[in-house]
Amino acid sequence: MEQQAYWAIGIFVIIYGLIISEKIHRTILAMLGGLAMVVFGIVEHDAALHHIDFNTLGLLIGMMIIVSVTADTGLFKYVAVWAAKKVKGEPVRILVALALITAFGSAFLDNVTTVLLMAPVTFSITKQLRVNPIPFLITQIIASNVGGTATLIGDPPNIMIGNEVEELTFMAFIYNLTPIAMLIMLAYIPLFVWMFRKQIRTTPELQADIMKLDMSELITDRKLLIKCLIVMGMTILGFFLHQALHLESSAVALTGAFVLLLLTGEHKMEQALTRVEWTTIFFFVGLFALVSGLVETGVIAQLAAKAIELTGGDLVATSMLILWLSAIASAFLDNIPFVATMIPMIQEMGQMSMDNLEPLWWSLALGACLGGNGSLIGASANLIVAGLAGKEGHPIRFLYYLKIGFPLMLLSVAMASVYIYIRYLM
Amino acid sequence: MIQYRFDETVIEVQERRDGAETEFRIRLLQAEPYAGRMKDIQRRFEDNEDYTDALFYVYPDHAYKIIVRDAHYADFLTALFKAKLILSLAWAEA
């Protein structure tokens, strides 16, 4: 390897280590790491820019705008309370209903956004029933990571993979990942009930109180809701048709976002743009530049060659290695930098001896997304919910979550292994 | 301790202590203009970053249950006072 490659590895390892230590904000570190690759001449300025995936950024920004405007309508609270009333205020069934809503929401919205929308209504319902909110919050964390696995737009690893690999369209993700995500949720639901049923008991009087709630008061802005529902519907339809329309998914999301801002007016625009999670967007920008150092200096190509050497180029062994490595790594590390590193590695494998990369992409997506359930630090949504719960006086302990999340994560990855093997490798 | 007074022809207020919280049961006997003011108070407490400072449950016929954490008890009563839903507020000996 050339001297430049050693410099690139050094910068990457230092930045990665600092990200894991959580002493400095990950966005600052990723940006400094990416800039270091340029400043020290490891990557040309233009090459670093070329590696920044503006499609991923556009998709994230577009969806953040749409969701932030829709959140003002009260829609999410309405849906959660409607579900609670449908199950007659029974806590175990509410827990299942909210987990399913979270999973569905996470398939079409960012996981962090979904749990942020679900948390307030969860506190509200559990307070009314006088039950512990922690089982509800934990099942929502887990459901958000499973639901996010199901679509191209559900979880950042999928967004990154889908935008990097042209053949993996929105429909391809639905066709290949939605079935296994649904199977995993189906397997989880009886386990959720079994684990938490004794912790969430209430009285018939409190259940009756839920049934009496006035639903008409929950929607705060009906005109805005209609506009949001039309735009959200058109945007999701756009995702389904983006390949036929020859449009990138980011173009669909950004069109939806700015049409909605056109309909809502300038006052909403200021607010919506402020609510875009710019720290996440810049984290991605920094990471893309950081990983470009490893790509341009040939480090990724060498890693890919080593991985092929390790598995003998066998597709089954390589798929399983990627799936389990991604899952275990994502349980304890941020899955976004991990996936950012793995994508060029799999692309390199394709340029070497492996011609069928499809099982490898699905293995990476499943491992990275499902792995997030393994620990409280496995995914951003987990940390956000834990932070909110702690602030509201219900801390979720790392070990308590690990005892629940890690076995469930292993179960889901085992199911994913069987699925990958039967569907793509037999 | 805070004592308050309200117009019984406009509003009914009952409160019950429960641990570190107080549960208010409020019913508006005159919808206009008080229901709108109540909605403004609800929005104020729901739009901040503290999700459980005061939790609002709205029932038909302008009835409300509000669970208020102790730290926000005075804030909530002050909000009712500013909206002219209660007539007076005063500190009193416990």
From TrEMBL, chain A:
Residue span(s) of domain Citrate transporter-like: 16-367
Membrane topology: Multi-pass membrane protein
Keywords: Cell membrane, Membrane, Transmembrane, Transmembrane helix, Transport
A family per Pfam: CitMHS
Major subcellular location class: membrane
GO MF: arsenite transmembrane transporter activity
TM spans (from-to): 6-21, 28-45, 57-80, 92-109, 173-196, 224-241, 276-295, 315-339, 360-386, 398-422
Subcellular location: Cell membrane
This protein's record includes keyword Transmembrane helix: yes
Family according to the record: Belongs to the CitM (TC 2.A.11) transporter family.
Protein name, UniProt field: Na+/H+ antiporter NhaD/arsenite permease-like protein
Entry's Gene Ontology cellular component terms: plasma membrane
InterPro entries: Arsenical_pump_ArsB, Cit_transptr-like_dom, Diverse_Ion_Transporter
UniProtKB/TrEMBL annotation, chain B:
Domain of life: Bacteria
Name of protein: Uncharacterized protein
Organism name: Paenibacillus methanolicus
Taxon lineage: Bacteria, Bacillati, Bacillota, Bacilli, Bacillales
